[in-house]
């Protein structure tokens, strides 16, 4: 007998509703149908926006202690259900069960940090008497919630990236409509249910499952949406920015992240860190390592150890605790990565290992001698592919690191403080990791990039700053 597919409802203004039209959710490992969610219509989105307009008032009037309590309760509930949420992440997405458990741990931390930062939303007094004639004026500014935020989230971190929108929005007294990726909507819906159980008032949060082609433009263009918080690809981000009108934008748009290995580096640590940084989450990671620049004196040694470690990477069943890497999110994405690699090889690149596809699985792949006119050299592969380059010196490594249109994060391995600080000042990125790969982040730090990597910063305190505005108050005591 065929197993019954779970029918999951979406959250519209705090009400859980179903729809006849569906979006099927598949496990990318075996293409098994695991659930169906509503395919929201424009009418559903309009209803969510209308409900959220009331949610704006409700959220703004919530006292800070209540926001703190809700977020802490949500974090505690998530901790109690860690295994359940990890199973959902691993089933609907690309992550192994170990990676999924790590994501749940991060989401718990994201909610707890949000609770802490809710109490730290402060203003400052202003010395109005600095101006001649204003001796009798005193005042200050405080931060107020921006209102209704539209959050559009990707598939690669289907829980924590939603928490990075929901946590700061609730902490700062805003209402929120979340549009999760259609291929991984289940984690976002489970988080919405958990927030409701934790006491979040109805209408403050909606999670709308639907196709971007149907409801996306309505969400981003609607005049009652005050801010768009988007995590995804540059092309979609660019399209959103041309359609929104006068709205606040927060965008994290990916990268083509470099790592630099200098001849004085601890090579064992550099290999371990960059292999993990390249292939975690099947390379579907905005800060994953894509380009590695190695000083020529240690290039061969580094390459040998890097290939050895890569070939030890275990690819297979996501739910097995020994698996290091699962499939890409769809077979279509795996085929795209395969085509990009084949294009590079046709243009003269040298394949060191990997380069094989089976369904949605693509083997961890290492390439060298990549021509500059290859798409892999300049764009974000978002797959398990890394390119090795030998460079003559540190200056060449910096120049080549900057020679793309992205700038999210970078890593450098060196024991030389002078070189470390030169990299800090010269590499054009939003974050630089010393003796770590680009694939390092804590949820409390400002996170974002320059150039085509985005606008603004996430990380709880910094997201709250984006989601609030300063209001000046001045008393004339004369």
Automatic annotation (TrEMBL):
Keywords, comma-separated and alphabetical: Oxidoreductase
UniProt xrefs under InterPro entries: Ald_DH/histidinol_DH, Ald_DH_C, Ald_DH_N, Aldehyde_DH_dom, ALDH-related_metabolic_enz
Keyword field contains Oxidoreductase: yes
Enzyme Commission number: 1.2.1.97
Aldehyde dehydrogenase domain span: 16-473
Molecular function terms from GO: lactaldehyde dehydrogenase (NAD+) activity
Entries under CDD domains matching the protein: ALDH_y4uC
Function: Part of the sulfo-TAL (or sulfo-SFT) pathway, a D-sulfoquinovose degradation pathway that produces sulfolactate (SL). Catalyzes the oxidation of 3-sulfolactaldehyde (SLA) to sulfolactate (SL).
Family: Belongs to the aldehyde dehydrogenase family.
Protein name listed in UniProt: 3-sulfolactaldehyde dehydrogenase
